[in-house]
Amino acid sequence: MTLIAAMVIWGLNVTVVKQLTTSFDTSMLAALRMAVALAVLSGIMVWKRQIILSLDRKQMLTLIVCGVLMVYLNQLLFAEGLQRSTATNGALIMALSPLVSAVLAAIMFRERLSLQRLLGVALGFGGVSAVVLSHPGAGLSSASIGDLMLVAGVVSFAAGGALVQGLARSLHPLAISWAIYLVGTLMLVVQAAVRSPSLAFEVVFPGWWQWALILFSGVMATALSNLIWNRAIASIGVARTAVFLYWVPVFGVLFAAMLLDERLTTWHLVGFAAVMVGTFLGTRPSVPPSSNS
């Protein structure tokens, strides 16, 4: 139930971030959301008395790479993509996450990619292509470029998640989450400070409602939900945990329709069906042939 609650929050977060892109520069938005998440994780670290005493060179390098992939690149691509695209498309593209996670885990841990899994990959990415083509005029419009950014964000997050599975054998999930967000947030803050045309009060604080959404996104959708995610990876593995992401596009599309009045097209439905079937095939364990003795 905890993982399902996190999926509901992630589905709503797509709509929340889409709304926030109208009030903040994307670099500033990503930096503020991650700074809030890091503050929450730091508080939990103190409360739980979790201290990272020592790290070897490999662990430190892996944490830095995870911070770049799962926070810095993922959040920039997520915000930039949603600014150009729609919350509906963002939610549907996130349905690729279990498929990408399973394929990357298979590659990184040297598992054989079966014909079933390869068929799932083809269907999944074919479905995303249908979503990209849902924009009027198709081609490489600003909206379709936004969709491609969202796909890249999914790949970035999944690659980091596969590395987390290795770290979880020796580090506490809370410590992993805190270190990853420390690295990624510092990079985002530096970029926001350099890229933002102004750091005036009205730029950082455009209104109470916007900051209420920032706090929801940073605390609930980022810090707490990702902590639940990393704990699940440590407990049952990245491939099994990723199956719960089936629910994110369902909730995401519902919230986008209810709160942003976004409409589903035939292309969306075709793409959604292909992604879901492809993800099912791509994440379902292959059944070995039975032997009759």
Approximately what portion of the residues adopt beta-strand conformation? under 5%
Low-pLDDT runs of 5+ residues are: 289-293
How many angstroms separate the termini? 42 Å
Query: What value does the average pLDDT take?
Result: 80
Structural class: mainly alpha
Helix content: over 70%
The SSE string, one letter per element, is HHHHHHHHHHHHH
The largest pleated sheet is described as: none
What's the count of strands? Answer: 0
**DSSP summary: helix tally:** 13
In angstroms, what is the radius of gyration? 19 Å
What does this structure look like?
The chain has 293 residues and is mainly α. Helices cover 77% and strands 0% of the residues. The protein has 13 helices and no strands. Helix 1 (2-20) packs antiparallel against helix 10 and helix 2 packs across helix 10 (208-236). The termini are far apart.
